[in-house]
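[Automated response] Your request has been received and processed.

Submitted sequence:
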Amino acid sequence: MGSNWQGKLELKYAQRLGNTQVIQNQSQAPLRVQRAFYPEQKDICHSVILHTAGGIVGGDRLDLSIKLEEKSQALITSATAGKVYGSSGLEAQQTLNIHLQAGSCLEWLPQETIIFNDAVYRQKIHIELEQDALWLGWEIVRFGRSARGESFLSGSWRSHTEVWRAGYPLWSDRLWLQGDKGIIESPHGLGGCPVVGTFALVGQQVNRDLWQSICDLTSHYDGDFGVTRLIEGLICRYRGHSTSEVRDWFIAVWELLRLFYKERPVCVPRVWQI
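Generated structure:
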């Protein structure tokens, strides 16, 4: 265990005279954050998380804590695709705790994660929303290095996300996939598709017309899609063969939602284009 990474990252954002600033940034290798930048207006702070080790192995543990003070706004992404390497049995873990104070908004948009064959990985995301706070996030996962003909035939992947407000659960999502040829090929599993994605907006109601507009977007793509309204939010699901396709769809959904809750267009992070 001594050779495994025990990475930590603590970020806190606050609004100062209409500008969102990073007021706390504490990190422990292999995690770090690039200098904050503002490709749109100063009220939205963009941050890019770096994993300097290049990937996660069994026994690694990453703990991230993100807090937004009242009325602050941030967009957080990752510098590259995440990689979870094969394990001899040890579990790799990532835990993310997010606290959004009243009127704040976080867009959590990491690049995709590649789960190598034999990987054992568990992720937990816990989000606390105060009054009028809004969280938007996505997760894109590729099982196996399919470009090299690799499938996820052995290992385990778990992801648990929960969003709370004032002691009341707004959304809880538990996903588990055991590496197995039958599950990978079953129509009740991945249906032969190596890529899955989940997109969530939680904290604000989505009307039926907007839901229908998002559903209509799926006609432009080839994968399997699902769009579900929550009491206070929206969930989109994808199953297919292309990370670029699911990202394009998620960006199109993000565009519609951002016009809805911010009345401004999206600003695609430049790091995605590198």
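Summary generated for your ticket: The chain has three helices and 17 strands. The chain has a mean pLDDT of 94.
If you did not submit this request, please reply to this message.
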